[in-house]
Amino acid sequence: MAFRRTDITNMVGRHLLPFMNPRVVAPPGMPRAQGRSNIVVATPMRSGTHLVIDTILNNIPAFRNQPLYIDLDQCWRQTGEEKDFITPITPDTGFVIKTHLPIGWKADGLADARLSAILDTTTVITVHREYEDVIKSLKRWHKSDFDTFALRFENEYHQFWRFWQNRPQIRVSFDEIFQPEKMTDLLDLLCRKTGTVRAGRFVPPPRLQRKLPVYFDKAATRLVGRHAPRINTTISLS
To answer: Could you give the C-alpha distances from 2 to 6, 106, 143, in angstroms and in order?
Structure first.
């Protein structure tokens, strides 16, 4: 069976340069408080989550921490084990926090006071991508079990928007991620809310047509974390 270059690259990423390392994400990294408010990026899957995270990290230097961001969903799943990844997240942790809340969360997690403390004291960005476009992207991601997955995901997609519809948020459309004027306005707003300063030169999301620079950015991010020339925390190129 012939392998595409993307398949080989993703295999290297999974086994030799995994994205789940302490330079990139907590867990396994452990965040230390930076003395500023957090930014939560909340989306359904395949809706531009990492594109927004990377735009923030590449354009607001103060948020280039180690690790680069916090995966709130994974923090909750690992709470109660050897390390408690939820308690260290406070209103002044000063990290970008990724979540697909409430997808995959149980009732006790959603009712946890620590979660409320995080969400009620931070700036939340949600990204809206049309359901049909998300499904097309998911079909490339879940090739073998797509029909089963899509049936479950339709409920999760609508569950996500019901959870967030009445909560304070800055809503960004997927298309706006690729519009520099929209993203610079968003970055300026985030800087005002967090007391930070935007970099002098705007760094846009990468153009996926140019694969080799993207591969380099991903490898550098996983190897040296916040010291990479251009942050790319995306998990796969498929």
So the answer is: 12, 41, 16
User: What count of other Cβ atoms lies within 10 Å of the Cβ of residue 67?
Assistant: 23
Which tokens in the block code for residue 198?
């935007």
Cβ neighbours for 99, distance < 8 A, ≥ 6 positions apart: 40, 41, 42, 71, 72, 73
Separation between Cα atoms, residue 66 and residue 13, nearest integer Å: 20
For the chain of 238 residues, list the mean pLDDT of each consecutive stretch of 10.
48 66 94 95 94 98 97 85 78 96 92 92 96 85 68 90 96 96 98 96 84 90 96 78
> Looking at residue 235, what is its pLDDT?
82
Answer whether 30's CB lies under 8 Å from 83's CB: yes
Q: What global pTM score does this model have?
A: 0.89
d(CA 181, CA 176): 9
Length of the chain equals 238
Which uninterrupted H or E stretch holds 8? helix 5-15
Beta pairing, strands 96-99 & 69-71? parallel
Question: What is the DSSP annotation of 124-188?
Answer: EEEEE--HHHHHHHHHHH--SSHHHHHHHHHHHHHHHHHHHTTS--EEEEGGGGG-HHHHHHHHH
Quote helix, strand, coil % in the chain, to nearest 5: 45, 10, 45
Q: Return the pLDDT at 149.
A: 73
